[in-house]
Amino acid sequence: MSLATSSRTSRPARSRFSVGAVRRGVPWESRIAIALSVLTVVLTVMVVNLPDQFPFTSLIVPLVTGSIVLGPRTLPWFVIVVMAMLTLSLSQQTELTQRVVGAAVVQFIVALIVLLASARRARLGVAGLRGEAMFVDLRDRIQNQGGIPELPNGWTVESALQSAGGTAFAGDFLVASRASDGRHLQIVVVDVSGKGVEAGTRALLLSGAFGGILGALPAAWFLPAANSYLLRQGWEEGFATAIHLWLDLETGDFEVRAAGHPPAVRRTASSGRWDVLHTEGPILGLVDDATFTSVRGRLAPGDAVLLYTDGMVEERHRDIDLGIDRMLGEAEGQLRGSFHGSAARLARTLGSKDDDRALVVVHRD
């Protein structure tokens, strides 16, 4: 009796285990493909039997949906299923008018476009939405890594980035790092060759690499290490310009080094004058064993330093020195009041709209 009871109680457990194993064994993407295939078959039946309620073009709905959510391994098979159902529904049409034939041709062309897109997507290995989400997540994580760290009272740092064409990816970026003791701050503004989406992938890679280098090496070693990293990549358009600021948050002492980048500028509050901090250094990624000179100084209360990319001061048919003068004139008016939002205002009003623009304002309150 006990054995019979044990057998009866174990069967539901095995059944539940089998169902759970099947569910776990079927990937999420395969479930979506099965659901879309069932929907395609149902729509085909409706198109054949109820042509007035379900137009011939209804089959394009699962096709477009599949192109968005299915990966490159599953999508080609699903497109074949849709094309087979499309052929079946076309053969069942009572009258092949020009309108019906034209609609069929359009849907076959869309299916071909989806197949070609799937072939390109196979290089990434994930579906469209998932691939886009991964790319956006990567961008957000790296941008957060390069964000301005929390600063002690008495210091304000404003940053702004405007990309060419208003896209979310740009060839200009910044990375920042604060020492473990909290005393020293380092900020690097980088301009990668190219602009907009063309330079976005290289900028994403370099921002992560430069962020790691910045926190691991002394300030004087950063630009040589960044230059060596770029040289090792072997890119055809692998050069970049950069400007590096090291700042002592207790004393206000600073050092500025540049690599083929427009010079930083400093505003002295006591005199209201702007000084251009000229430094020398080659563009990153072109010359091995490069040396970079530095400019040292001290920020007194009320002083400010501006770091920027050439998109802020360069415009077609205009010298860069004139662009710097125009930027300083605009900055003088913007920075007289509150520094809050000053970088964003300057980035919106200055520079070329066809180039990426980045600006950092460091102010000692």
Order of helices and strands: HHHHHHEEEHHEEEEEEHHE
Q: What is the CA-CA span between the terminal residues?
A: 87 Å
Using the alpha-carbon principal axes, give the shape.
elongated
What summary fits the major beta sheet? 5 strands, antiparallel
> Briefly, what CATH class of the largest domain?
Alpha Beta
Mean pLDDT: 81
Describe what this molecule looks like in 3D.
With 365 residues, the chain is α+β, with helices and mostly antiparallel strands. The N terminus is likely disordered. It is 47% helix and 19% strand. Helix 2 packs antiparallel against helix 3 and helix 4 runs antiparallel to helix 5. Strands 1-10-9-6-7 form a five-stranded antiparallel sheet, covered by helices on one side. Strands 2-3-4-5-8 form a five-stranded antiparallel sheet, covered by helices on one side. It is elongated.
Keywords, please?
elongated, Phosphatase 2c, domain 1, disordered N terminus, five-stranded antiparallel beta sheet, 10 strands, 365 residues, alpha+beta, 47% helix, 10 helices
How are the secondary structure elements laid out?
Blueprint: H1 2-25, H2 28-49, H3 60-69, H4 75-91, H5 98-121, H6 128-145, E1 155-162, E2 172-178, E3 184-192, H7 197-216, H8 222-233, E4 240-248, E5 253-259, E6 264-268, E7 273-277, E8 294-298, E9 304-308, H9 320-334, H10 342-349, E10 357-364
Antiparallel strand pairs: 1-10, 2-3, 3-4, 4-5, 5-8, 6-7, 6-9, 9-10
Helix pairs in contact: 2-3, 2-4, 3-4, 3-5, 4-5, 6-7, 7-8
In short:
By secondary structure, the chain is an alpha+beta fold. It contains ten helices and ten strands. The chain has helices at residues 2-25, 28-49, 60-69, 75-91, 98-121, 128-145, 197-216, 222-233, 320-334, 342-349, and strands spanning 155-162, 172-178, 184-192, 240-248, 253-259, 264-268, 273-277, 294-298, 304-308, 357-364.
